[in-house]
Design a protein that fits this description.
Elements (H helix, E strand, L loop, with lengths): L4 H16 L13 E7 L6 E7 L11 E6 L2 H16 L7 E7 L3 H9 L13 H19 L2 E11 L1 H12 L6 E5 L5 H4 L13 E7 L4 H18 L3 E7 L7 H17 L1
Parallel strand pairs: 3-4, 3-5, 5-6, 6-7, 7-8
Antiparallel strand pairs: 1-2, 2-4
């Protein structure tokens, strides 16, 4: 079979490019108006990268901005930054994203940070209380010292066991956050532990909870349990619960982040 010479040349060019390894070692694509600062915690010893996304005009503004603290930032910082910036085009409110990433082994350390109790057969679980203190004593003070932020307007976003950690903060700790986006929260952890402990009043909190309709029975039950608990026992200032049709555990967070952020912006305005 005779192939066109232009096609052959194109294939050869691609092969040479791949063989040369020219992708390796080149500068990565960056996100405008962002920065990253390292944080080595003296509380739990974990090495974090704090990824910060500023709104348009931040450098010249004297305004103080709300903060959005994002868990699982290794994966989701570009996604949430893009979503929020598009939403800010139609909203008066602008916010600063504070993404909490790990310098190494994110899957290992997130399990430690986001789970409120140790389960014997789940390695490295049960460090949520230490991580809470990292946020309260180390991270938030640095952010509020270095940047123009509102100290009374903090949101936390978490998916899966990140959503579990957000729920743990909502029910068990003092008011370091006033708004919560809980995407597919793993409330099932340790036999629904976060719903069984005494909790502080959350009457001044805004809470968005979601789950994908195609998630496992365990995740759907977690959503129902949390929704019912919030409706009957806790009565947050504002509550939005959503089943995201046609989405599974991996895909549901995309719409959850979008709808959760939009709802919070509209709710606050």
């Amino acid at each position: 079979m005779n192939y066109p010479k232009t096609l052959i040349r194109s294939i050869l060019a691609i092969l040479i490019f791949l063989h040369s390894g020219s992708v390796v070692g080149q500068e990565l694509v960056s996100i405008p108006s962002t920065m990253e600062i390292p944080l080595v915690s003296s509380i739990n010893g974990i090495k974090y990268n704090i990824q910060i996304a500023f709104p348009e005009g931040y450098e010249k503004s004297k305004e103080k901005y709300p903060t959005i603290y994002l868990l699982d930032s290794n994966d989701d910082f570009p996604l949430v930054t893009a979503i929020l910036r598009r939403l800010q085009e139609v909203s008066l409110e602008k916010s600063i994203i504070i993404g909490i990433a790990y310098q190494e082994y994110p899957k290992y350390y997130r399990r430690q940070d986001y789970t409120p109790s140790n389960i014997a057969d789940i390695e490295n679980s049960g460090g949520a209380d230490l991580f809470y203190n990292v946020l309260k004593r180390e991270l938030i003070p640095v952010i509020e010292e270095k940047f123009n932020v509102k100290k009374d307007s903090r949101t936390i976003i978490g998916h899966s066991i990140g959503g579990l950690f957000g729920t743990y903060l909502l029910f068990n700790k003092d008011s370091i956050f006033d708004s919560y986006i809980l995407s597919s929260p793993s409330i099932w952890w340790d036999d629904y532990l976060v719903l069984n402990e005494e909790n502080n009043s959350i009457s001044d909190k805004r809470v968005f909870v979601s789950v994908g309709s195609e998630e496992t029975t365990k995740m759907l039950e977690s959503f129902d349990q949390l929704k019912d608990y919030l409706d009957k026992n806790s009565k947050p200032y504002a509550l939005k619960d959503v089943v995201i049709e046609g989405e599974n555990h991996a895909s549901s967070k995309i719409k959850a982040y979008t709808d959760g952020l939009r709802w919070l912006i509209e709710e606050k305005n």
